[in-house]
Structures are given as structure tokens and as C-alpha cells.
């Protein structure tokens, strides 16, 4: 039986083969697949291609995605790996808004001190340009509407 819906969590069904984003300190923002549902609070997940070890995890530590990989209950790691790669979920997830957000956060966290300084300087320059343009538009508006 492939992926029968078991319970609903945040508008998506918790089911075998559902791709999840793991939010534990060891596996922050990595993708994994639900291999089995143990009970209402715990799942067996496996991230054979993403480096997440096969483990039991609380449902509170995962975020369900829209992607489902066709798997049987309790599938082995090689079956999970083959199905995950065949479906191309990693590339599809990277194109979503959540995938882009996780990628940008990872990039920002891995910046060096000098790179963080460069980012702050660029933000200051951008703010100065926006404020200058806004002052010009405001002055132009006040010239055309003296009663305002």
C-alpha cells in the first residue's frame, strides 16, 4: 500500500512517502522522507540522499512539504534513495519559496566578518538612495500642491 493518508497536519496529510523539512539542530533545514508513522506524535524518517540518518522523530520537529515520493511502508534506505532521486524532489524544493528562504539563510549564516561588513555597507547605500529619491518625490509633490 503506497502512502495512505493517516492524519492531517497543517493542511497536508502525514503519509508514507511525504517529504519533510527537518528542524532539529543536527539536521537543520534538510529534506527527509516519512518511511513509517509510529503514532500520532512520532514518525520514522530517512534522508538517504540528504545526510539525515534514519531515525524516529517527533512530528513537531518536521515541516510537511507538498511533495510525495511513492514508497511502501517501512521501505529500506536504498529504496528511499532511488525514489527520492528519481522524483527530483531536491531540485523542485529548491525552486519553492521555502527552499529559497532556507538557501538564503544558510548563505547569510556562512558569511565571514568582512562579508557581513560589506552587506551592511551595501544596505546603507541602498537606504541612502531610496531616501534621496523619496525626498525628491516629496519636494515635487509639495511644489505642485502648495495647500498640502
What does this structure look like?
With 148 residues, this protein is α+β, with helices and mostly antiparallel strands. The protein folds into two domains: 7-109, SH3 type barrels; 116-148. The chain has helices spanning 77-87, 89-94, 97-109, 113-144, and strands spanning 7-9, 12-14, 18-22, 30-37, 42-47, 52-58, 62-68. It has a five-stranded antiparallel beta sheet with strand order 6-5-4-3-7. Strands 1-2 form a two-stranded antiparallel sheet. The longest helix has 32 residues, at 113-144. The termini are far apart. The mean pLDDT is 90.
Work out the number of β strands: 7
Class of secondary structure makeup: alpha+beta
Mean pLDDT, to the nearest integer, reads 90
The share of residues in helices is 40-55%
- Stretches with pLDDT under 50, minimum 5 residues: none
Inertia-based shape: elongated
* Radius of gyration over C-alpha positions, nearest whole angstrom: 23 Å
Q: What share of the residues does DSSP label as strand, in percent? A: 25-35%
SSE diagram, text form:
Blueprint: E1 7-9, E2 12-14, E3 18-22, E4 30-37, E5 42-47, E6 52-58, E7 62-68, H1 77-87, H2 89-94, H3 97-109, H4 113-144
Antiparallel strand pairs: 1-2, 3-4, 3-7, 4-5, 5-6
Provide a brief overview of the structure:
It contains 4 helices and 7 strands; from the N terminus they run βββββββαααα. The chain is an alpha+beta fold and 148 residues long.
Keywords:
148 residues, two-stranded antiparallel ribbon, 7 strands, five-stranded antiparallel sheet, single chain, 42% helix, SH3 type barrels, 2 domains, alpha+beta
Amino acid at each position: 500500500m503506497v502512502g495512505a493518508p493517516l492524519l492531517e497536519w497543517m493542511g497536508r496529510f502525514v503519509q508514507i512517502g511525504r517529504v519533510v523539512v527537518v528542524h532539529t539542530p543536527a539536521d537543520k533545514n534538510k529534506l527527509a522522507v516519512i518511511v513509517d508513522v509510529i503514532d500520532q506524535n512520532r514518525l520514522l524518517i530517512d534522508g538517504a540522499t540528504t545526510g539525515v540518518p534514519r531515525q524516529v522523530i517527533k512530528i513537531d520537529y518536521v515541516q510537511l512539504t507538498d511533495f510525495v515520493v511513492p514508497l511502501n511502508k517501512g521501505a529500506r534506505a536504498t529504496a528511499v534513495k532511488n525514489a527520492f532521486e528519481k522524483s527530483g524532489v531536491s531540485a523542485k524544493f529548491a525552486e519553492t519559496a521555502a527552499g529559497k528562504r532556507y538557501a538564503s539563510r544558510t548563505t547569510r549564516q556562512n558569511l565571514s566578518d568582512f562579508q557581513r561588513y560589506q552587506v551592511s555597507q551595501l544596505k546603507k547605500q541602498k537606504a541612502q538612495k531610496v531616501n534621496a529619491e523619496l525626498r525628491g518625490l516629496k519636494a515635487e509633490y509639495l511644489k505642485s500642491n502648495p495647500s498640502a
